[in-house]
Amino acid sequence: MLKFHQIKVNKDELSLTNVLQAGQAFRWVFNEKENHYTTTMKVTESNKYFIVVLSQPADDLIEFTSPDLSLDPEHLRSHLERYFRLDVSLNNLLLNEWIPKDHRFKTISAHGVRILAQEPWETLISFICSSNNNIARITKMCHSLCTNYGEEVGVFDGQKFFSFPSSDVIAERATETALRDLGFGYRAKYIIETAKKVSKVRADGNYENDTALFRKLQSSFSYIEMREHLMGYTGVGPKVADCVCLMGLGMDDVVPVDVHVSRIAKRDYQIIANNKNISTLKKLYADLPITRKKINLELDHIRLELYNKWGLYAGWAQGVLFSKEVGKVSGATSSGEIKKRAIVQVDIDIKEETATRTTFDRVSNKHRKNIKREQI
DNA sequence: GGACGGCCTGGGTT
DNA sequence: AAACCCAGGCCGT
Fold this sequence. Notes:
Blueprint: E1 5-8, H1 16-20, E2 29-31, E3 36-42, E4 49-58, E5 61-65, H2 73-83, H3 90-101, H4 120-129, H5 135-149, E6 152-156, E7 159-162, H6 167-173, H7 176-181, H8 187-205, H9 210-220, H10 223-230, H11 238-248, H12 259-269, H13 275-287, H14 297-310, H15 314-326, H16 365-375
Antiparallel strand pairs: 1-5, 2-3, 3-4, 4-5, 6-7
Helix pairs in contact: 4-5, 4-11, 6-8, 10-11, 13-14, 13-16, 14-15
The chain binds a DNA duplex through residues 23, 127-128, 130-138, 140, 180, 183-188, 190, 234-240, 243, 256-261, 282, 293-294, 322, 326, 329, 338.
Catalytic activity: 2'-deoxyribonucleotide-(2'-deoxyribose 5'-phosphate)-2'-deoxyribonucleotide-DNA = a 3'-end 2'-deoxyribonucleotide-(2,3-dehydro-2,3-deoxyribose 5'-phosphate)-DNA + a 5'-end 5'-phospho-2'-deoxyribonucleoside-DNA + H(+)
EC number: 4.2.99.18
Keywords: DNA damage, DNA repair, Glycosidase, Hydrolase, Lyase, Multifunctional enzyme
């Protein structure tokens, strides 16, 4: 019998359903009978993956464990606290950041919807798969990559669990044809080309793993440069790149703008780019030294306006609103079924937390002027 | 330089 | 039943 350990956290701060099954992470398997979630993840500094099991048995409690007895529970606890970003209080953001800036949040509960700190490489591949696709199939694809190219980590609930394959493993062992046969469709080519390029960049820089590479890039790049770099991979446009920045690199103020966010922005905030907005953005990007893929300036205007409106945790605010708008589909269950879900109403209470940094603070000086100009 | 098809697939709807 | 639509975009022309 597994021994579960506890994390005291309220459901309005963290709802496992709303965070793990709402199109942000695609590799958590829900066991309906036992009411717990299972995945594999890196927990330690090494590249080893562990099976991790979570449940939310009460409104003020998360329970966690791993069947791997070599894993120190306290180490897993601190890892999960980082993964769920428990240093950030949703209720504080709501009360002190979003409600004062946006009256729309007065009547909204965050429902425990928060942004995860996921592995950048896995986030990149997951969201390459997300283009013109639905959550059920994205989930299926992510699992398919693991079962076909990952390493078996262990068995739980009578089901085998695998690691997420690194860029070099995919580059060496997978082919476009093989991925097409596995049902990836036109994304097969994107994944192969991206894996080859990432593993090459990695090898050239002698990085130990994919995470190390992306963290290093992040440390020397501004947000704009990081997005630029990500958009250099096939199948990665501004939306996918922004998802990686937000959920894989912890850039909390980045708002990935897709069709839904675009609709919300126009319908609820009347954000519509005029000619001046567009020409300003055009100049902004023309001045940047990096040649870029074309981006939709109308959507980019929405991104900036929502950042201006919501502030340092704009990406989180988007998550809350987005979940309210379209979060109705769940991911994998043990039986392989995909089910509809309902968002649970929760109450609001207060905690201490202070927002500290912005992605735009990290823009290098030669770009700052341009960015600032656009922030006005 | 920007607008516009076309794209794999699977589940749902007509 | 067959046809059509749609899903948290991106690529090529």
